[in-house]
Target: tRNA-(Ms[2]io[6]A)-hydroxylase
Amino acid sequence: MFRLKLPTDPRWANIAEGNLEEILTDHAWCEIKAASNAMMLINLLPEFTEITTELTSIAKEELDHFEQVHEIIKARGWVLGRERKDSYVNDLFKFMKPGNRKHLIVERMLFAAMIEARSCERFKVLSDNIQDEELAVFYRELMISEANHYTSFLQFAHELAEEGYDVKKRWEEWLEFEAKVIESYGKSETIHG
Model:
């Protein structure tokens, strides 16, 4: 899926299901961060009207996902915990190459696409492997939405790349790097953990 080089071991879903309150809290914060990322990108490129419009829709959708997760947390009698550190995302952030403004924006788009791709893949693993039917259906629906975000960010990278910037080649580098990073994850009840 998404040409990820290292798929998630389905047994990770059992770890996640062992502490649903934690996975839902972590997931809720991932949605807030995704909405914040879309808004930050708007701040970087307001002159690109069509991309800004799409990013606005993505930010709203991510906030809607947060609300949905929060409603599930409340319905189960739990309380949203404090923000969780996402070491996986921090590891990916270090892979971005410096450059001029346009180059940095394209790197941010690839960074966002990578996170969305892995999140979507994790949602699929959850939907296919957990016993909780409500959450299995919920994660199947979210998987589709996140796949759209992934493709949007990749499309934005292609649209914004300057001549000489090979987005396909750089995306392959991201995929290779992410495979090395994800090797040390998949052992905790967090979306990327």
